[in-house]
Amino acid sequence: MSETAKPTFDVSVIGLFCIDILGRPVRRIPDGGNADFIDEIRLTVAGTAGGTIIDCAKLGMKALAVGAVGEDEKGLFVRATLEGFGIDTSAMQRYPGVHTAASILAVRPNGERPCLHVRGASDALLITEAEYPRVLDASFVHMGGNGLLGKMDGEPTRALLAAAKAAGRTTTFDLIFAQASLMEKIRPAMAYVDYFAPSIEEATALCGRDKPEDAARYFHDLGAKVCVLTMGGEGCFVSTGNTSFRLPAHDIAVVDTTGCGDAFTGGLIAALHRGWDIERAARFAGTCGALCAGGLGSDAGIVDFDATVSAMDSLPLKH
To answer: Which of 95, 141, 250, 299 might form a disulfide with 315, Cβ 3.0–4.6 angstroms?
Structure first.
């Protein structure tokens, strides 16, 4: 793997790929064996890697998917859907007899979505050193899903990101279901992270600091170069270590918040890949999150790069 050779892919997205089964609006769970009627049910490819890579592809990036699925109907759906977006799935690991990770989400009228999740094949994902030349053959390497990656959490993630930096790649990092216990596993990897993009809730759960300025400083001290903390309806907080700023969220009608953070990360990667500065890239990322929140599922809202730029310039901002 040469540091000077032009990578084959724009982005390699590694981590959690799952299926989401979403329904809305769910106001209650019917008693006994009764039924209620809702407006919409969707089946999507999601996860901190799956949702991000689909948005990267929509935004014009040549993308490599690196994850794990079972040899079941859900795994077939994941691979077919990714390929339908032009994503290379040749590095996806397949595990016979193991369920593909999946979630059932009952989306409430206000956009909240309580979740039932099967971990499945995501816990079996393991990237060995022999696979580095293939999975790191991209300008950007995104690691997404620590917290639900049984074998990758810990030293395998540190080693992978260290190899990515040694190869001259730009690294981005996000996680899921963050708890304080995860911090010890990911701490050594932070020195190899160029852009860390958790939600403020996840950042606080990891480091115990409520204020975004304090949380960002905690991760900077561990080596993360840029911290981009998403804050839902309050926008985002960006810290480069030397400077920091906040950006407001768009003022939109929220349908479903599933995948908004993944859309944000995908938008951030796509904008940085085009050479945008961090402030404009974070604005673009916020627009991606807003577009996603306007529909059902993690692949909602985003059409392509130009349409998203137009939305960035036209959608109203919260004051």
So the answer is: 250
Rounded to 5°, the CA angle 26-28-29 comes to 100
Q: Domain map of the chain by residue range?
A: 11-29+39-313
Please list the alpha-helical segments (H only) found in the chain.
50-58, 73-84, 132-135, 155-166, 180-186, 200-207, 212-221, 260-273, 278-293, 305-314
d(CA 269, CA 255): 24
Percentage above 90 pLDDT, the chain: 92
- CATH fold of 11-29+39-313 reads UDP-N-acetylmuramoyl-L-alanine:D-glutamate ligase (3.40.1190)
Q: Return the closest-CA partner of residue 146 out of 197, 109, 107, 99.
A: 197
The C-alpha atoms of residue 51 and residue 228 are separated, in whole angstroms, by 18
- Could you read off the pLDDT of 239-273 as tens digits, one per residue? 999 999 999 999 999 998 889 999 999 999 999 99
Using CA atoms, how far residue 318 sits from 10, 98, 112, 206, 238, in Å, is: 33, 45, 20, 28, 17
Please tell me the pTM assigned to this model: 0.95
Characterize the bridge pairing of strands 115-118 and 102-106. Answer: antiparallel
Q: Dihedrals φ, ψ of 127, to 5°? A: -100, 115
- Max distance between CA atoms of the chain, in angstroms, equals 63
Report residue 4's pLDDT band, with 50, 70 and 90 as the boundaries. Answer: low
First to last CA, the chain: 48
Pairwise CA distance, residues 151 & 262, whole Å: 22
